[in-house]
Specification:
By secondary structure, the chain is mainly alpha-helical. It is built from four helices and three strands; from the N terminus they run E-H-H-E-E-H-H. A three-stranded antiparallel β-sheet has the order 1-3-2. The longest helix has 27 residues.
């Protein structure tokens, strides 16, 4: 496998690293589940190793039988809850 460039992997490299097909990664991008960190001028998608945990969550939820639409909903809800709790936490600590 080609060495990562500037901490980024091409879709092929990332799919090999994560054991997920490039086709799945393109679909996750189209659905808004996992966006590439960078899109090259050539249209190539670039990912970072830091995105592996998010991809692992998607794959785990899929393995539990959730549809991708449900996975997206769960991940959005979880992100919202994290944001809300950090905002309420920062407000309470400032008073």
């Amino acid at each position: 496998a080609e060495e990562e460039k500037n901490g980024m992997y091409t879709i092929g490299e990332f799919s090999n690293l994560a054991h997920v097909s490039a086709r799945s990664l393109r679909y996750y991008d189209a659905m808004g589940l996992l966006r590439p960190v960078h899109m090259g001028e050539n249209g190539y998608r670039y990912y970072t190793g830091g995105q592996l945990p998010a991809l692992a969550k998607i794959e785990t939820l899929k393995s539990y039988g959730f549809t991708l639409a449900e996975v997206k909903e769960l991940l959005m809800r979880r992100t919202w809850m994290r944001c809300a709790s950090s905002v309420s936490g920062s407000k309470s600590s400032s008073f």
